[in-house]
Write a structure and sequence with these properties.
about 400 residues, alpha/beta, Rossmann fold, 2 domains, eight-stranded mixed β-sheet, three-stranded antiparallel β-sheet, 9 helices
Length: about 400
């Protein structure tokens, strides 16, 4: 995707400040792509890049009233849910400097479903044609050129370390209830139903439960392990059920402990899946991990990370800023979604099929089997993966 546009600036600035303003303007591409009102049936994985697109300041010119016109260009990649388009109309704010002066009601009135109540998430949900939105904006015509794609596969043999595939599945509750034990009747929750469905599926596939830790109180999560051997490969699945996000003061019991589970498991698990609300792991601005205690990723460990929540594309930038795509594949949702046990079960089924029969499931087939809720599930980081199955030497 490429476009060139101009923005007005109130006064002269340094070269680095001009570039900073242009980059801030492109941050609105996330909302402009995901919630484009001029094409209501067209959605994009707005920020699925492993890096932000290139921003280049072309020229800076002074008007008669001494205001500045900043001309800049943007080049980047975007994944659309249809082909054959030659351009895309983007709605961007007219006054990028004025964004800093907006009030809470502006963020709410100009964002999808009123999601943005603060500046940090405004760009993600930017929807200027909402009724009540008074922020001035204009159209930018971005040209599109298709990029060649190829069928790739998860690198199944590299998931195995010393004969074992370590798998982590963490289920964050949909509702903020005190009971974190999914096996009790008063723990009713959509995610609890999904969790139990996944566990029962694993047991049906031949796994056995080897460890259980019942939460002592509502500050801890439920934890269990299941193990199974398929062919020559042992699989160890750690399952966590609890409260994954911060709700509000006084009713967010256990969310920090759940987060610590994720930090511990992501260090050495080859396959890590989170399912739950999207407000987990990444700062609201969608560009970095929670900085107080960010995940520490092993740069040499090949991992597949699944973030199965609403619009989890914002996880891509911080993950790929921490680790190369040579050892990281990420599966994320571009749209809102409901609980979806297929997103958890299908990858494990594919790993079992590979281990038992040597049959590789490609990413297109895997994503199709996972995305039963039509949430526009997509994979990134697989561009350097195998394009066909290969034999593993046993010497």
């Amino acid at each position: 995707m490429h476009f060139t546009t101009q923005i007005n600036v109130s006064k002269k600035k340094t070269a680095s400040q001009y570039l900073e303003l242009a980059t801030a303007h492109t941050n609105f591409l996330v909302g402009a792509l995901a919630f484009n009102p001029s094409k209501p049936n067209l959605r994009a994985l707005g920020n699925t890049l492993r890096k932000i697109g290139d921003v280049k300041v072309n020229s800076v010119n002074e008007n008669e009233d001494e205001t500045i016109v900043l001309d800049y260009s943007y080049d980047g990649e975007v994944v659309l849910d249809r082909t054959g388009l030659s351009y895309y109309l983007l709605e961007l704010p007219s006054d990028i400097e004025g964004v800093a002066k907006l009030k809470k009601e502006d963020f709410e009135n100009c964002s999808a479903a009123g999601y943005a109540s603060e500046p940090s998430v405004f760009t993600q949900y930017w929807t200027p044609f909402n009724h009540g939105c008074t922020v001035k904006h204009y159209s930018v015509k971005a040209s599109l050129e298709p990029v060649e794609t190829k069928v790739t596969y998860p690198d199944y043999p590299r998931l195995v370390k010393e004969g074992v595939i370590k798998i982590a599945i963490l289920a964050g509750k949909m509702e903020n209830t005190a009971n974190h034990n999914p096996y009790t009747d008063d723990a009713k929750d959509e995610e609890r139903d999904e969790y139990l469905d996944i566990v029962n599926h694993l047991l049906d596939m031949g796994f056995v439960r080897t460890y259980t830790k019942v939460p002592a109180d509502n500050n801890t999560s439920y934890e269990e392990k299941l193990e199974g051997t398929f062919g020559k490969t042992k699989m160890v699945v750690t399952m966590i059920f609890g409260n994954s996000i911060y709700w509000e003061e006084g009713v967010s019991a256990g969310n920090e402990e759940f987060y610590q589970h994720y930090l511990n498991l992501v260090r050495d698990s080859s396959f890590i899946l989170y399912t739950g609300h999207a407000g987990f792991l990444v700062d609201p601005d969608g560009t970095r991990f929670y900085t107080d205690d960010a995940p520490k990723l092993d740069p040499n460990l090949y991992q597949i990370v699944v973030m199965n929540g609403c619009q989890t594309t914002n996880n891509l930038l911080p993950f790929f800023a921490s680790k190369s795509s040579l050892n990281l594949d990420m599966i994320v949702n571009a749209k809102e979604t409901t609980t979806n046990e297929s997103a958890s079960k299908s990858p494990i089924d594919a790993m079992i099929t590979w281990a038992r029969e040597g049959v590789w499931t490609s990413y297109p087939d895997l994503i199709k089997s996972m995305d039963t809720e039509k949430a526009m599930l997509g994979v990134d980081g697989e561009q350097d993966n195998p394009t066909e199955p290969y034999e593993v030497s046993t010497k």
